[in-house]
């Protein structure tokens, strides 16, 4: 059984508290006040309320740490201290359409030892309020679903594999590049899914529900926790060039060792 650290308990408490509000608001979709944040990119009162709940809980526990918040931006912490990277509602469009597939994502990133920028993500949590599933990982301590250890899929063949993706939408992403990659991967795999939450896509790769995943044009709060989950579950996460980054956001390619290699060849060939 996993021994949960004090930091992870703080993160899970914050996520579960915010999750209670999201479940309540999800049951009252028609009454939510919705405003446009950009083309086809909506934000509701639920986003802000969940983010405020998470922020207040984490700040009380780590008052000198910084924050990167999807809705409220970057808040600097004390020099040399870590920071939280928070997406209070990943899958907002699903939420607003009454589709019960969305998550809260919280990650912790450490500053570099030389003081020049940010280094590794050392803790990550993806919490799905509707199913009450808590996917979490800490660097070198593995990835877990509640108290069950997670491992990426052991499938080695693309034609047996289920791959997840995110599809560009109005004002976001490169349709031409995505179509090239889809055209290269699609004929070689058992299926492709697009469920609308990058954080959950990566958590499901870590859990072996998906065998691989690709997406571009994400933000750090979308993928920071998920990247760590996949890596701690024995998988690989890189950009489309095969380069491993602390947080893969602009380009994300994930899977076990064999499938990641095969997917990378297909993606690289499609984008030549």
Integer average pLDDT: 94
Largest sheet: 8 strands, mixed
Structural class: alpha+beta
Shape: globular
Radius of gyration: 18 Å
Q: Specify the number of helices.
A: 7
State the helicity in percent bands.
25-40%
Distance between the termini: 46 Å
Written description of the protein model:
The chain is α+β, with helices and mostly antiparallel strands. The strands form 3 sheets. The protein has an 8-stranded mixed β-sheet with strand order 4-3-5-6-7-8-9-10, with helices on both faces. It has a 5-stranded mixed β-sheet with strand order 12-11-13-15-14, sandwiched between helices. Strands 1-2 form a two-stranded antiparallel ribbon. Strand 11, helix 4 and strand 12 form a beta-alpha-beta unit. Helix 4 packs across helix 7 and helix 5 packs parallel to helix 6. It is globular, with a radius of gyration of 18 Å. It starts with 5 loop residues before the first helix and ends with a helix. The model has no long low-confidence stretch (mean pLDDT 94).
